[in-house]
Amino acid sequence: MKKQYVIARYFRGWYVETMCQPTTKRDADKRCVKLQKEASPLTEYKVLKIATTDKKSDLHLTYNKWEKRTMQIDVIGSVEGTGFMKCKLYADGRVCVFYMTESNYKALMYDKIFIRDGQTIDSAGVINTTNTFIEEDL
């Protein structure tokens, strides 16, 4: 088997995507260094070794069914004049922006889904957050 390498992007320590086609370690290392210089502090690039018998094969990383999945919600703030709250959902490291009504947000605060009082903004620009929910074994 021929040794080939790819660059994987991680956000907050969680795998997000594969950044390039299989290549040599030297080329992957160079590209990884260049990408890391331009990235935010929360983003990390790693060179991963793969094994393949076909030079032209594409790498499709799949979800590892043995890893437990995680989820967390951050509330960014109220969208003025709309009655909606802007939120970010982190699912296995992938970030999705969504909006919820202020009444649903208040109900979830009442149910203690969110762990802060929602009155102050932290250094990440978040007014409230949930605990990180981890998938249970079935």
Tell me, rounded to a whole number, the average pLDDT.
Answer: 81
Q: How many alpha or pi helices? A: 2
Q: Which structural class should the secondary elements be placed in?
A: alpha+beta
Radius of gyration over C-alpha positions, nearest whole angstrom: 19 Å
Number of distinct beta strands: 8
Helix content: 10-25%
Order of helices and strands: EEHEEEEHEE
Question: What is the beta-strand fraction?
Answer: 35-45%
Low-confidence spans: 55-63
Largest sheet composition: 5 strands, antiparallel
Q: What is the 3D shape?
A: elongated
Distance between the termini: 37 Å
Task: Outline the fold blueprint.
Blueprint: E1 2-11, E2 14-18, H1 25-38, E3 43-52, E4 70-79, E5 84-91, E6 94-101, H2 102-110, E7 128-129, E8 133-134
